Amino acid sequence: MTGRDAIRRAQLRLDGGVRGDEGSGAPPHRSLWLLDALDEPAAATAADAPPLLGAARADVAIVGGGYVGLWTALELKRREPSLSVTLLEGDVCGGGASGRNGGQIHSWWERLENLAALCGTAEAVRLARASEAALDELEALQDEGLDFDLRRDGWLWTATTPAQLGAWEEVVARAERHGGRPYRHLTAEEVAARTGSPVHLGGIWEPAGGTVQPAKLARGLRRLALQAGVTIHEHTRVRSIDPAPAAPGATSPGALTRLRTGAGGTLDAARVVLAAGAWAASLPQFSRRMFVVASDVIATRRAPERLDAIGWKDGAAICDSQMRVLYYQRSADGRVVLGRGGGAVALNGRIGSGFERSPKFARDATAAFRRVYPMLNDLPVEQTWSGPVDRTLSHLPIFGRMEANPSVLYGVGWSGSGVAQSVIGGRILASLALDADDEWSRSGLVDQPVFNFPPDPIRWAGAQLVRAAVRRNGAADDAGRRARWLDRRLAALTPSMPTTEDRP
Ligand SMILES: Cc1cc2nc3c(=O)[nH]c(=O)nc-3n(C[C@H](O)[C@H](O)[C@H](O)COP(=O)(O)OP(=O)(O)OC[C@H]3O[C@@H](n4cnc5c(N)ncnc54)[C@H](O)[C@@H]3O)c2cc1C
Fold this sequence. Notes:
By secondary structure, the chain is α+β, with helices and mostly antiparallel strands. The protein has helices spanning 3-9, 32-38, 41-44, 67-79, 112-119, 121-143, 169-177, 188-195, 214-227, 304-310, 359-372, 422-433, 458-478, 485-491; strands at residues 12-13, 55-63, 85-88, 104-105, 155-159, 184-186, 202-206, 210-211, 231-233, 238-245, 253-261, 266-274, 290-300, 317-319, 326-330, 336-340, 381-392, 398-401, 408-412. Helices cover 31% and strands 21% of the residues. The longest helix is centred in the first third of the chain and has 23 residues, at 121-143. The protein is globular. The two termini are 39 Å apart. 52% of the residues are buried. It binds flavin-adenine dinucleotide.
């Protein structure tokens, strides 16, 4: 292979459709959370994070200003304050999933089965405990003065139909078998009292969990990163990641990697961390390891007194047990913010405007809200938005080095559980970027066995079929009917990772 071939083979094109960058036309549709967080005076101006123009150098370059990129930047500066770290964000920090999510925080005990299948039982338990510690770390941040409306009133995993009852039992038993006691069972009366609706028939409570205002958390981490000396360029979309030439005109790859931006800027760095979340799905290495599915969120008018009146008083995170999960919280300012998974599916990892807002799926989420809270039927929905979820077969993130260029590290595929868990992501990616040999670089989440989805367009077409059946199943469950045989069979085709045996 010639030097030029080596360069060509190591080129990575990022084409996932980030909006909000230079010259991308209409401004993106924003979540209520982000609009609220951007109102803060310190965040209103991008003077502290201007677009990258011209040529720059850094020890570590980070692509993506969501939680994962920001936690990685903070962790790198904590471990090596003299390191130069530059983060490039195509939109604004928090413009992606980190500023649009449901704000639910809970541990990874719930995913112990898949963790154990991927990493072995001991590492799975270590990661579950690390995710509990991450919840405490968020609280410590808030205690130090970062305000993101953290309320540790727990995470409620509930049933809103008889068919959903007991969905959590295996998870509780598995955690207990491995020495974890994260959950407490609630009676139907207790869960109805906590949530303010008798539609809840039972559930468990993870006291360590709770809720945050997600965009305030992202913008707060951005502020901390700037204070720690991280250079941030917003509205700077990375279009390609290539080995930098060793010298002007050289034909063989050099030691550095060059990021080229939409506005013609370049950033050369010894290590690159790809923390682009769902937008990484368009890269060939990930195209079959994860698929992108929208999750759709609605927020009602503020009505704290109405929520008080039905007994929904605290900031617990609440979800049900459907396949297209419903997740909701009473926001700190007294709105109902409710989301539903299983919306639009991306073809070839392209994230279009349907991943910012979908009237169809917003109607669907609103109908679900009206079913669970019929006593709030007259409460208007004031804002709706959507976001892309980077879903893997294991429902867990994947970490490693890009095949095309091992100086480029990645941590993507959070599968809808990343608000607290991305603290761990930052540790793992910092260890990989620093070539450290420690519990994080050796974590079983790094260089996992590969589980692939079928290729597009087969996967996309199959997903449409299976998801439509899942939606009809959910509707039948909501209406107290048994779903049709064919729909049950089709829904059962939802791909999942084999978990029969733990790895040693
Ligand atoms: C609607 C919704 C609800 C969710 N609810 C919850 C929840 O309640 N609890 C929970 O734990 N998790 C939830 N999640 C998941 C959680 O939000 C994510 O796991 C977490 O935000 C992941 O952060 P990230 O940094 O990987 O991704 P992101 O926040 O998406 O950050 C990636 C960033 O990379 C930028 N980018 C992409 N490509 C480029 C490029 N080429 N150049 C420069 N920048 C680029 C994007 O603009 C984006 O800002 C939800 C997700 C969604 C979408």
